[in-house]
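During the reporting period the student researcher (J.K.) took over the structure-prediction task from the postdoctoral fellow and processed the backlog of single-chain submissions. One of the processed entries is reproduced below for the supervisory committee.
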Amino acid sequence: MADQKDNNAQDFKVQTAKHPNTSTASVRPPPPKERSRDRASKRLSSESNGNSEAGVGVSTPVEMTALEESFRRFAIHGDTRATGKEMHGKNWSKLCKDCNVIDGKSITLTDVDIVFTKVKKKSCRNITFEEFKTALGELAKKKYKEKSAEEAEAEVFKSIEGKVPIISGVTRAVASPTVSRLTDTTKFTGSHKERFDHSGRGKGKAGRVDVVDTSGYVSGYKHAGSYEKKLSKPM
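J.K. obtained the following structure tokens:
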């Protein structure tokens, strides 16, 4: 019996000599509860870092609807600082006008302004996309009274989807009597009159710089060159 204990002690010493950093406690596997707890903590940490078993940090972009795209285009119209997430009252009225939501009968510009004030928050001047859809729903009920709320809303949404702001043409300049008087060369006097000929065309450098006349005629003589013409005629 004593010999067996000595053999076991000797075997233990041999094992510890081969693996000096190994202990009996580290060799034992953790209990099932601790293993499941470790797996759960690893999963939570991977999800918080944007990683998953299906992929690492992959985020699917949200596709923008045609209605939301039109909302964004009208929201940034004429405002370089706009982000497209909110729309102010002026662009809201333009959207309703350009997309024929305003018909002058069941929906007027006054109705559009009233609905805008109704759906927006009291402390804000703009409306969000969700408030925008609510406002369109209010106008749809008023415009399509014979249809259900869902059908009327769908009709209004359809009239706006894919639309962009209409840019007006260039404004023509209106003739002003004051401007016409100041640009009429026939009424110029003094040195300014000498810069233009009888047709109103500028003389260029000759009208700005004194040019020495070497023709031999005095200034203002109207028959300059007539003597040469007489000599050239046959007798």
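The committee noted the following: The chain has ten helices and two strands.
J.K. will present the remaining backlog at the next meeting.
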